[in-house]
Design goal:
Number of strands: 8
Mean pLDDT: 84
Largest sheet: 8 strands, antiparallel, barrel
Distance between the termini: 22 Å
Strand content: over 45%
Amino acid sequence: MFKNTLAAAALATAALTGGAQAGVQQTYECETTNSARYGWISDKFYFIYDAEAKRGWVYDGMVASQQKDAREVAFEVRSDTSYKFKWTMENLKGRDGSVDATYNATLFTARNRFSINGHLHGWGNQLAGGGTCKKMR
């Protein structure tokens, strides 16, 4: 979905410059390797978090369609190596008009993997996918 990975990474991490100063921000670049056939899960995600401050951000093609910076999302530290991100995207462009979608993603840092599921509001489609990740900083 991104034509220039470095530019996308710069946008994702630049969004946090001057952000939370309480802890250390970690950024993971993740490639989707399996997903539902419906197309509502991006090919690439950036998960950014500050575990100490309990803040998280997500950047992907859906976020990029609506804003230039990473989106701050609900964030939960599940363990020292597992982090949960939850967000809702509103007014996404679909072939039948606009739709809202809620996503839940879990980043597993010890395994360099992530899983994601979602739901399109007003539709029966359950979205699911996952892939591999690498730590950027």
